Description:
Blueprint: H1 3-20, H2 28-49, H3 55-74, H4 81-96, H5 101-116, H6 120-137, H7 143-158, H8 162-180, H9 185-200, H10 204-221, H11 227-242, H12 246-264, H13 269-285, H14 288-306, H15 311-326, H16 330-347, H17 353-368, H18 375-382, H19 387-393
Helix pairs in contact: 1-2, 2-3, 3-4, 4-5, 5-6, 5-7, 6-7, 7-8, 8-9, 9-10, 9-11, 10-11, 11-12, 11-13, 12-13, 13-14, 13-15, 14-15, 15-16, 15-17, 16-17, 16-19
Amino acid sequence: MTDDNKTDWLGLCFxxxxxxxxxxxxxxxxxxxxxxxxVHAETVTQYYSSSCKEKDAAVKVGExxxxxxxxxxxxxxxxxxxxxxxxxLEIKKEHLGEKHSEVAVLFDNIGLFYTKTGKFIEAVxxxxxxxxxxxxxxxxxxxxxxIAYNNLGLAFEKQGxxxxxxxWYQKSLDIDEAVLGFEHIDTAADYNNxxxxxxxxGEYETALEYLIKARDIKETLVGKKHPNTAIxxxxxxxxxxRMKNYDEALKYTEKSLDIYKETYGENHPGTALAYGNIAxxxxxxxxxxxxxxxxxxSIELGKSMIGLFHxxxxxxxxNIGTILFDADxxxxxxxxxxxxxxxxxxxxxxxxxxxxxxxxxxxxxxxxLGIEEPFLEWMAREVSVSLEELETAV
Length: 394
């Protein structure tokens, strides 16, 4: 077979793949269809990328790598996200130039990947690069710029910098309301994100106001069984839990869990998150054994997708510790608090609110166990235990 014939056949395969691959993975059928052909899609795109020389064809290859990365991200297969984004970025820089909005989109997507995998410093760097480029080539009132503002807000939220997160979310909302109006799915996403940040900042009434706005728009535009709606259901569950409205909290969080399981199955970050949130609600209602079981399930699911060194994994260990501590089992709680401490130490700064909570619980555990050794000396010795030993202890 000649090189020209080989290129023709690869181009044909690539064209078929373009037609077949779903545009998004927010429906169960689309997610299943993508995962079924994901490896084949990567292989065809990689082979075709080495043979196509024309600009238009090369840009399409870049778009396909980007789409594959996005789909892996939506399906929670994070190990395969970054390499596809990087391939796309190289191609688009070469054929579209360094100062192009599509390059900025990839900067932003890479930032989101780092946020989801707990690397927040890298996330902020990539989002700032995206924002600078968007503002330069599209201006400060463009919808793509608004998305980048929103995503930077998310990176700050995950670092525990909630007021800063709200500022960036509000910038995004101002653009979306002006350009898209009040009844649009992107505007609803802004309401959701602002509500979530207020929730984490302890301003529950304000959080509820924004989340209800988001829920109403999402239920109208995409329906009650959509993963986008599940995000807001989950947040409504959390705010009701914090307000001690436990029945409402369970209702919304279980709705979220059902949607994620129906769309993506058990092995998805949204499913793991919902299990953990249901566990927290059950623990407060007094069902500690079921709460422990669900948090452990959440940990195992999370570790398989996002790894051990992630804030969500640390938070789940901390939550089991609090369940045991509140049940007057401080000695059993200790290894969970230590695990959470060691994981947070690796992935967030020492001013993160969740990290500070763990330290306070360790101080309380030290006191409850009646340990005479000064706290800081005891703490230094306890955290020197390896992760492997702690995991065995739990």
